[in-house]
Design the sequence.
């Protein structure tokens, strides 16, 4: 059998190595998640036309395009900086919460710099809370967004059967689906960050020593 001191050092080395490997994976996935949230926020493909819609087009959180029945050209409107150009109050609210979700994830990446100055366990937990809050905001944004489907602009594209939470002849596009998937991603990342924070708290000190019994 290995002496107690040597066994403790091997355990400590493996524990630190595993914690660092998990930390690297969490960092990579957090950066990937941040890119996803930015794409979800800016892309205007939350809902769109189908073969049965009166007009071609698509809608995002703030930007949308609707086809002209005579020329078949798309007329695009909407800007995140111009609330008056957004066709529904629900879209404005959804944009706000998804935007906050995006900023929280980007903020968690900025917090990576704190690893150089603060306790690693505390930094992991700060990022975990930010990612959990990001997930909550994304849930709210995704739930509120369909409340704006009864706006006149959406009905012009999707047909008069369109109403709140009823999409009529239109279909859900990939950006909306990606937003829903990102909720689960954020929850997983936040739970992993909490786990990493706890592991950091439980790490043995570098100078761990086990007192050997000199006298039987």
Sequence:
């Amino acid at each position: 059998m290995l002496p107690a001191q040597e066994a403790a050092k091997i355990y400590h080395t493996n524990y630190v190595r595993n914690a660092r490997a998990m930390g690297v994976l969490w960092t990579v996935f957090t950066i990937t998640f941040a890119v996803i949230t930015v794409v979800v926020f800016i892309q205007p493909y939350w809902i769109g036309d189908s073969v049965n819609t009166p007009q071609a087009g698509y809608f995002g959180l703030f930007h949308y395009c609707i086809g002209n029945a005579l020329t078949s050209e798309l007329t695009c409107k909407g800007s995140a900086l111009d609330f008056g150009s957004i066709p529904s109050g629900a879209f404005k609210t959804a944009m706000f919460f998804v935007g906050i979700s995006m900023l929280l994830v980007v903020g968690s990446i900025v917090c990576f710099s704190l690893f150089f100055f603060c306790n690693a366990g505390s930094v992991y937990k700060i990022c975990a809370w930010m990612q959990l809050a990001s997930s909550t905001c994304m849930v709210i944004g995704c739930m509120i967004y369909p409340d704006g489907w009864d706006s006149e602009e959406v009905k012009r594209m999707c047909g008069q059967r369109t109403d709140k939470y009823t999409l009529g002849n239109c279909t859900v596009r990939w950006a909306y689906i990606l937003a829903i998937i990102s909720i689960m991603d954020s929850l997983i990342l936040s739970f992993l960050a909490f786990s990493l924070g706890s592991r950091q708290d439980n790490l043995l000190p570098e100078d761990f020593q086990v007192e050997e019994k000199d006298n039987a």
Residues 204-216 have pLDDT under 50 and may be disordered.
